[in-house]
Amino acid sequence: MTTVTSGRLLDAHRLRADFPILRRTVRGGRPLVYLDSGATSQKPRQVIAAMSQYYEQHNAAVHRGAHQLAEEATDAYESARESAAAFIGADSNDVVFTKNATEALNLVAYAFSNGGGKPFALGPADTVVVTEMEHHANLIPWQELCRRTGAQLRWLPVTDDGRLDLSDLDRIVDDSVAVLAFTHQSNVLGTINPTEELIARARQVGALVVLDACQSIPHQPFDVSEVAADFVAFSGHKMLGPTGIGVLWGRAELLEQMPPFLTGGSMIETVQMDHATYAPPPKRFEAGTPPVAEAVGLAAAIDYLLGVGMAQVHAHELDLTRGALDGLSELPGVRIIGPSDTAERGGAISFAVDGVHPHDVGQVLDDLGIAVRVGHHCAWPLMRRYQVQATTRATFYLYNTPEDVDALITGVREVQRFFGVA
Amino acid sequence: MNLESLYQEIILDHYRNPHRSGLREPFDAEVHHVNPVCGDEVTLRVRLDGNTVEDVSYAAQGCSISQASTSVMTDLVVGRTLAEALETGEEFLRLMKGAAQPDEERLEDAVAFTGVAKYPARVKCALLGWMAFKDAAARAVVGEGQDG
Questions:
Q1: Catalytic residue among A378, A385, A402, A414, which?
Q2: Are the C-beta atoms of residues B63 and B124 closer than 8 Å to each other?
Q3: Which CATH number does the domain housing residue A348 bear?
Q4: pLDDT digits (tens, 9 = 90+) for B40-54
């Protein structure tokens, strides 16, 4: 790679040595070409080791117990919160650990129908706006919220080339809008959405902004003081961390007023037989025993990413994306679904191979050791918009190399040969 | 390469030239089935004549495995008694579960799908049309007609 961002290069070949799984073979001895990090990333040994060490040396219930292990476990969990907060330029009091990003988004959506006062009150006169390119995780919770409250659901459409169509922004996001929820980067199209313009419009009408940052935070520098949303959700497992942990960041004054979603132990202040009062954020939103080892793993993942540099990660992925877009567009009968250049774009590429169903594309690639995602990518409405039933999607991360991109292009050629369409 | 064992020539032939494709009238029941994992779908109609399956017609969108399997299925059920057709469906289900000795005489061309059982993600594709037929046949018998 020849990307120079801040004087350092990202050496993917060297980083790969940290990812044991990338050394294995699949389907009868084929080296693994992993192009499915948009679904879940692989984990470096540093993350795996941190989690093992937590279980081997420090495991205990957090925030209780009078013993040394409980202290160490609590310290590990709260340090992880500080790491996650620092990673996005936030205060650790404003960082809530959840099971995953889906739970983080539901936590906010449920706050609006859980008997909270303004701004967490929603009714038939209110509107929630999403976009046509949302992952189901940032669509269904809002559909359900509208069903429970009688609020109206609207969405911003997308253009043929995979961008948000903002020509009608002022009409769609009008004074009735209470919530604007949108994805920072599409998991299907790779499009990075114009946060500034969208958030400015939300501010004009007094709407709260919920940002699904699952596909952006793992891949580029991100700071909550620059992206002025009110809530930001992301998941650990897409950024080298383990499954079972996600993050919700919220503005302090909003979290303070927000009613809890899941209730039970750990999130209370005092409890009587017939009522209870709740702990301040973030604990108010962390009922039950939290995912401590997962938080420790996430913190190790963040350390790893910071060691590489997020600007370097982003630049590296753009190089790979450029190479893949160029290579795929040169193949007759292959159509990119999403932006065809790298402007405001991340490393997720969806494509269609004329005459071959994505499942069959994925099957042939799998036989060559290439792991891609096929299907509707939890974005069924977007598939309908582009009149496809499904797509094949390749996604890149810091451990992918130009050789991986070459393997993909060669693989797609083999798909066409096998099915006799080229 | 394992691909050839999965994509047998018979499967690719049915995929390119599906039998009995298209929706026809008259019919006794119509169902719509989807595979929520990948979005593949089939609308399928069944016409019974007494105890005999007189026609199966369908409109399907999906991968080669689901399309070919639906096509082969119609060959194996049309003109047979409903009981025979359903038994063949059960035998196909056993094949997809990796049964050691499938009844090749009963399954005919459907034996070509043996390789699918090795790819758990594709088993649902191969079963889409069969499950739709089973559902439609049950509705036709009780006279329910259309599904919701």
A1: A378
A2: no
A3: 3.90.1150.10
A4: 899 999 999 999 999
